Structure formats: structure tokens, C-alpha cells
Amino acid sequence: VFPWFGLDIGGTLVKLVYFEPKDITAEEEEEEVENLKSIRKYLTSNVAYGSTGIRDVHLELRDLTLCGRKGNLHFIRFPTHDMPAFIQMGSEKHFSSLHTTLCATGGGAYKFEQDFRTMGDLELCKLDELDCLIKGVLYIDSVGFNGHSECYYFENPTDAERCQKLPFNLENPYPLLLVNIGSGVSILAVYSKENYKRVTGTSLGGGTFFGLCCLLTGCSTFEEALEMASHGDSTKVDKLVRDIYGGDYERFGLPGWAVASSFGNMMSKEKRESVSKEDLAKATLITITNNIGSIARMCALNENINRVVFVGNFLRINTISMRLLAYALDYWSKGQLKALFLEHEGYFGAVGALLELLDSA
Amino acid sequence: GGSLTKLAYYSTVQHKVARVRSFDHSGKDIENEPLYEISVQEEITARLHFIKFENTYIETCLDFIKDHLVNTETKVIKATGGGAYKFKDLIEKKLGLKVDKEDVMTCLIKGCNFVLRNIPHEVFAYQRDSDTEFRFQTNHPNIFPYLLVNIGSGVSIVKVETEDKFEWIGGSSIGGGTFWGLGALLTKTKKFDELLQLASKGQHTNVDMLVKDVYGGAYQTLGLSGNLIASSFGKSTTADKEFSKEDMAKSLLHMISNDIGQLACLYAKLHNLDKIYFGGFFIRGHPVTMRTITYSINFFSKGEVQALFLRHEGYLGAIGAFLKGAEQDNPNQYSWGENYAGSSGLMSTSPDVYPMQRTRSGTFDMLEMDRLERPLVNLPLLKDPSTYIPDTVDLTDDAMARKYWLTCFEEALDGVAKRAAASQPDSGDALERAEKFRQKYWNKLQTLRQQPFAYGTLTVRSLLDTREHCLNEFNFPDPYSKVKQKENGIALKCFQSVIESLDSLGWEERQFALVKGLLAGNVFDWGAKAVSDVLESEPQFGFEEAKSKLQERPWLEDSYSQWLQRLKEGPPHKCALIFADNSGIDIILGVFPFVRELLSRGTEVILACNSGPALNDVTYSESLIVAERIAAMDTVIHSALRDEKLLLVQTGSSSPCLDLSRLDQGLAALVRERNTDLVIIEGMGRAIHTNYYAVLKCESLKLAVIKNSWLADRLGGKIFSVIFKYEVPCQ
């Protein structure tokens, strides 16, 4: 029964995937209730919803076959704080009359369950976010990105001139370390489709970058924060090894360019007064990214896994972080570890939820 | 360092020691002469000093060095830390010494090894919700391998495998500098300490996104509690809300501490290490950061790894630099002891609790360590040296006991000071020095009331030792020397009649009489207030009176029957090691007859007495004279000494208590060589305050008379109750 949705309600963002069937027969068309049609039309004919909802058109998967049906998969996101408005809209559009199951994952599936029930007259099917995440990753990678590879890596990450993005074949994915960077970070070791464990997590994630940027620079969107970061110079804010030792610290094999103390220069009043908002945004980005790289690297070593896949919406339009992760993993592991990325960054949980819906049907 | 200059230097200290020397009695009227001669002599010992100065007073510090620099051979001063660069010219100009810069991390680790090896209770774990937050650890005989996490402006994680082998295995740029720098940006608060203070008042939940903010409750599938931080600063992702300085500082503190703890655990796991010591300015005595780091390590290691801290963490670099400079006369070949009189101890810098001490520790803090005559080692007969704890009651833990003993020591103080003054009637300034001693020890007791953790675990032993150190500091090396001399003389006169009466008894009766004699002798203890009052007021109080005071059997702890059976049925012991207690009746009429009986059974005896004086405890040199006198009267003792069946040794200690993990190397060698299979520990200080629960590899006998009604009450008995604890190791 249509409509087919998958919902992932995170700490900051709600991710919604919607399967638009393109093989609807005339017979079906006739039977289709008005509600369903209007929902399809609303979602597919717009790229923005309200003031905050956005459809990532560039991610759309076309001519997909799901459960014997052909169609397109759409990727939509909006901030979690607009969840009440979303439920309200569902209620106004009489979503509950469609008698479909709404599969949801992420913490919000639990947090908003009661609101869905009372405001939207809807019963959510709650799914574990890690199960959905892995399911989604494996599925999207297997179907590919409209004929291109979903997975990619950076060649020569330590050489800014020669560094380039190249497709990666993730045919034999196991074992892999999956690092999901949302508001916070979860790190999973995946050994097979069913066999995985959450190794650890850290609270220093995308939310930390964005939160600190808001406090330090007064920015109000993630895009704005990233934009500022791209124009900043973090070495004015951070204390580098060379700032302390004049060059490399040979006793420990530390290169002079390595950050010795994040925000370390900000201990000095004069330096605090001489940095720009852009510098601060950049330093925040570098700090958070390096730290995630460092923890991921240690987990990979402890779990004896050499492929690390980074996903999550922190990486959206965030080439600085991706290249830095690729670089840091390669450099500190002396080439032993490889950082991999996926095109659909933050949507895998929602895709997993959609797949669960189809599996259960 | 960034704000403090830590100075380490070596000096020789001249102080008075008491010596005893046997008279040549030939042709003299023995009856009216004292047993031996007592003299006070000057002795030179080596001491290591560590002092902190604020960098603002670097000139004062340099003046101090100049004033103390007596060795004109010194041409070089070793320096480490950032200031070694900054102050190089100033130091060279002012002192005329060449500054030799040493690698920071090498110094840090050298210093760390030194304190771990030489200072008991150097290491502690931090416990937030206990009466006293510091849990001191037993020094493990093998300190390696360990992980040192130094949290300065960044974080360095170093794996230390041996004295000279260490490796930087990782680090993080998120450290103390991040807290300070980012904190200053967020809160406009400039000072590190003020930031910590802000943090201790804040609510991080206003700034951080918690699991329950995302899930509405816990994330049950993974067992993640709703209060866990899902995203640090995850609630500040908005431009139109104000956050309080306190809340942001707290959130930042949690973020950084958790991150460091997580990385430390990951490194510990990868390198299979379970000891992690934390240091650096971020930690340095700050309860707030010790608490958050401890929490983080607990959380990420699931309780498998303990976060450990060091009492003298701030001195490690200075100690290490000093050791680098002292390689010709390597201090590592000696044993060192913390001098409680000259050390200021660990101060809680918790801003809320002790504002007074806080300023004090910031400006002036010191540590002194005395070089010991001979190296100290574990008693080879300890069952498990790594878990051996000498002390029976932990007064840091036991508030009731702490109050009682502190009061007890306070009440006894006037008497001790008086006796100290009286012990040097010919000295003009004895009264004045005694008063200074009284003041100093009084102040120590007050500090310990406030901060029981200042010198490691507070115990009756540490209180006694501190008193001895303070007495020595004011040149009262042996206040009881005359009392001991007199009592030894009196007791020797009774020796023969005691032996005759023992010899007239049947075997079984004699065994009981010997034990009773040992216990009665132990009543003569000037350290116990109940006894010293009696001894002061009834000079005629003697051996028989003491016997009548003893509790009748069954004793409070009574395994006499098992002991008797062992003597009856088992083969004679090969060799017995006896730790003696008091001078006079105790050693002469109690211990020696007992020794004589063991010798007659064919058991060799090692008699161990203190190297230096403490209260009226018999010292090694006194024991030599006493043995010589007894040998002159008694053939058994005479031939045993001649044939080396009876050996007199020193313990290496000057404490009224006994730490079996720090004993003279010679004693340990002898114990091993003679296949010692019986250890006898006598007296309240050695067998009750310490070692009551000590587990040995061989048979042991712990005997004492409880001369303190509070302690007796605690153990369920009355004053003058008897402890007779005979233990056989389980196979």
C-alpha cells in the first residue's frame, strides 16, 4: 500500500525518504484516493517545503525497482524543531486515512511517538537507528547512484595539489568501521549484514561544531558556519607544534604543522583580539573533525579494521572535513587506514526505515 | 612551567643524633654507674628539596638559589619546561650558571618513576562521593608498565616500559589550552582557575543535547542513559538564545574531560595497560577536573581502568631535570623518605571548600625527601607485596577514628614537648625549641583535621612518624634516651632472677610464663598515654605489677593453645625473626628470655630493632649493648651470639610502627639466607596499628597489650586486653 515513506528523526535534522512510483497503471490511478495523489504531487513538484524543508534533488535515485515497483526515491530534510508542524500537516492532509504504516527511526521516533498518536492519529512503527543505518548503507551502495558509484575516497589525501575524489568499489564491504556523524557521533564495527556492534560514540559531533560556531560567531545556520569556516585560518587560533618547539618535535616524531593545542592561542588576550569570526569557525571545524578522525582511527586499530566509512549530515557540503578526515587517517596510520565516503551522507537511516517497511509488508 | 617555577635541589643537612656507647666497666663500681654513655653528635645527611615559586616572583626564586648555592663546583643548572627558554638569559646572568635545557617529557617521566618508587601513597584515585575524596594506593613493587597522560595545553599520551624506555604513543590537541582558550572566548573570563570555578557552578544540561533530548528518555536498545551527552553544545545551535557563562564553562569542561578520558581508554586498550596516571596543569590538584576525568575513564572503560593521580605531580619535571643533572651520584641508587615535617602536603584546591589553603598552595608549596642510609626493600616473607597495606585503620576513611586519634595526639602533645625539653637539661634553648616543635606539630595536626589526605592515607603510623620528624627538625633526636638508659639498667639487674624462676618451671608452665613475660614487658610503653601516666606517677611500677594488670585468659585474641600445640608437636623452627618494641623490661625481661628459649630449641633468631630512635623503642645500637651485657650473664645467649645463631640487625626504620615493605636490605638478605620460618611482631605500634592483617608466607605471631581504652573498646575489649595472634599460612 502506498505511500512508501522512511523517516529518521535525529537530534537536529529529520530525514525523510519518499518512493514515488512511476509505474502506476490506469487501474491503480482510478482507485487511488485523492489524499494520496495530493501528497505525491506536493512532494514531487516542490523542492522546498515551508520555510525549512528541503528536497535534495541532486541525490534523487531514478528508475529504481523496489518490491517489484519502479519509481524514483526522493530525499527530503527539515529541522527537528519543526516536527510539530510536520505532524500538524500530516493531520491536515488526513494521512491517517491512508491506513499505511509510517516507519520511523532515530531518537525522535521515540520522543514524538505520543505526538504522532494524539495530534496525527498515527501509530509509528519504531525502528532501531543503527539497524536502519546499516541496512540503508548496504542497500544504497548495492543499487549505486544513478549509474555512478555511491562510495568514494580521496586519492593522495596528503597532497593538496594532487588530491582528487575517486569512486570506490565497496563490493566486499566487511569488515568495516562505520562512523555516523550527526549531532553526535556513533561508531559501529560491521562484520556482516546482521553482525555489527556499536564500538563507541562521542558527543563531539556536528552539533558541537554548529553549536560552538553559533556561540563564537553569531551565525545561525550550518551552511553559514561552513561558509565562514571556508574563509578562515585556524592556525591563528590553534597552537601548533611549531609554535611551541620552533619546528618539528623530533623526540616524538611530531611534525611542526600538527595542532598541539586546539584554541591554544586563545589563552592570550592579544591573540583573542586579533582573530576573525572566520578563523574561529575554521578552528572549530578542524578541532571537531580531527578529533573524530582520531577516535575513529583508534577504534579501527582496536577492532583491527582498515576501512572506515564516514556518513552523516555533518559531512553535507563539507569538503573541508572530508578531505581532512581522509588526510588524517592516512597520515597518522602511515597509509594503513582508508577513509571512505558515501554520496547520500545522512539519509541511510531513513532509507533503512523504508526498507523495513517493505520487508514487513 | 607556564605559571610556576618548580625548583629541585640537593643539600646536606646537619642535625643532631643520639649515640650510645658502652663504658669500659673494668674495675669500676658497676652498681652505681649508668649502663652506657649517651652522647649527642652532629651528623650530616642528604636531603632533596622541592619548592614552588610563582613565576611573577622569579627574581625571588633566583635570589633563593643564589643564597643556597654553597657548592662552587656547580657550573650548570638543568632546566625544563617552556620557561627554560623564556628565563634562560635572566637565570644565566643572575646566577652565573649555564642553563642546560632538558627535554620536557624525558624529565617528566624520570620524575614520575622517582616518586612512584620512593614515596608511599604517592598515587591516588579520586572519589567524589566519599567523606575524603582521595583514595591512596599501595605502591606496587613493579611500577612498569604504565600510561602517563599529560594534559597541558594539549594532551600527550606516553607509554613507559622501563626506567629509560618510553614512547609517545599518541595525543590530542583538545586539552587544557582548549578549555582555557575556548573558555575565554565563550565566557570572557581570562583566568584558568576562574574558568574552573565557573564550570563548577554551571549546569551543562542547558547547553548540551542529552540522549533524552533526542529520545525523550534512554536509548534502551544500547543501554545508554537518558542523561548521557549526545552532542556537546548541541543546544546552543541557535543565534537567538543567551547561555550563562557557568553553563557553557561546565559543558566545555565535560566535553574536554570526556574526550581525553575516551582517548586514554582507547590507547590503554590498544597497548593492554591498566594503570593510567594523569598529570599536567589541567589536572594539578583541581578536584573539578579530577572528578570529570575519573568519571570519563569509568564510563569508557566500563570500570576496568582506574584514573590515577599523583600527589607530587607538579614537581615531576623539576625532579626529572634534577636527576638528569645528578647522574654521577645517581639518586636512584638510594632509598628516599618523605619528610613530613618539611613537606607542605597535598592541599585541596577546591575553591568552595578551603579558600585559605588554596592561596597558600598557589604561592608556596614544598616537599623534602631524606636520603636513607641504606636501601629499603620488601620483607621477602610477605605473601603478596602488591596488596600489602601496613596500616590497620585508614583514618582518612574512618572519620570517628580520625577524630579520636587527632585529639589523642593533641592531648599528648604538651607532655611530649615537656619531655623533649627535659631530655636536654644542659641546652640553653631546649625550652624554646620544644615550644617550636609543639607549634609545628600542632599545626600539622590542624592541617590534617581539615585535609586528612595531605600526606597520603592518614594513619596512626603517619601521625607518629610526623611527630618524630618534627622532633628531629628541632634537634630532639632522642627525648627518651635517659629513660631508656635507666630502664635498661634496672631491667638488666633483674634478668638473672627472671631466668632462674623460668628455669625452675616445667616445660608447659614455662612456655606460658614466657609469653606472659613478653606481654607484661610490652606494658612498658611511654608512647601510650595510659601507661606513661602510671610510669610518671609510680616510679616503683615493675614487672610483677605489669603482669597483674594483664587480662586473664581467654584473651581478646587468643590462639595460645594452637601455639603451644605447635611447639609441642612440630619440629623446632629453623629461624625466627623478631621485631622488638620497647627498651628496658620489654626487651630484657620479655624478649630475651623468649629468645633464649627459642635458641635452646635449636631455632636461630634474628632480632630486629629500629635503626633510629622513636619514643622508648629499643634501637639497634642499644640492643647491641643490652645483648652484650646479657651474654656476660648467660651462657645460652653468649654462645648463640658467638656462633651467630643469634643475630642482631637493624630494621632501617625510625618509626614506632612497622612497614614490612620498607625494610633494610641487609635484614631481608639475612631472612632469606637463614630460611626464616617464623616471624614474631611485638607491640601495639607494630602488631596492631600496623600489620594486624598482614599476611605472611610463614608462621607468625603477633602479640601486644592494648594500652588505649578507645582502641580496646573498638576491638571489643578493655584496656590491658591481650592480643595473641598465631597464624599459619594456608597451603
Overview features:
heterodimer; A: 361 residues; alpha+beta; Nucleotidyltransferase, domain 5; eight-stranded mixed sheet; 17 strands; globular; B: 731 residues; alpha/beta
Question: If you had to describe this structure to a student in words, what would you say it looks like?
Answer:
Chain A: Its main location: cytoplasm. Chain A: Pathway: Cofactor biosynthesis; coenzyme A biosynthesis; CoA from (R)-pantothenate: step 1/5. Chain A: It comes from Acanthisitta chloris. Chain A has 361 residues and is of the alpha+beta class. Chain A has three domains: 4-132 and 347-360, Nucleotidyltransferase, domain 5 (2-Layer Sandwich); 151-233 and 276-342, ATPase, nucleotide binding domain (Nucleotidyltransferase, domain 5); 238-274, no CATH class. In chain A, 39% of the residues lie in helices and 24% in strands. Chain A is globular. Chain A starts with a strand and ends with a helix. With 731 residues, chain B is of the alpha/beta class. Chain B folds into four domains: 4-117 and 316-373, Nucleotidyltransferase, domain 5, CATH 3.30.420; 124-207 and 243-310, ATPase, nucleotide binding domain (Nucleotidyltransferase, domain 5, 2-Layer Sandwich); 399-468, no CATH class; 480-727, 3-Layer(aba) Sandwich (Rossmann fold), CATH 3.40.50. Chain B is 42% helix and 19% strand. Chain B has 25 helices and 24 strands. In chain B, the strands form six sheets. Chain B has a seven-stranded mixed β-sheet, with helices on both faces. In chain B, helix 6 (192-201) crosses helix 8. Chain B is globular and about 100 Å long. Residues 348-363 of chain B have low confidence and may be disordered. Classes of the chains: A alpha+beta (361), B alpha/beta (731).
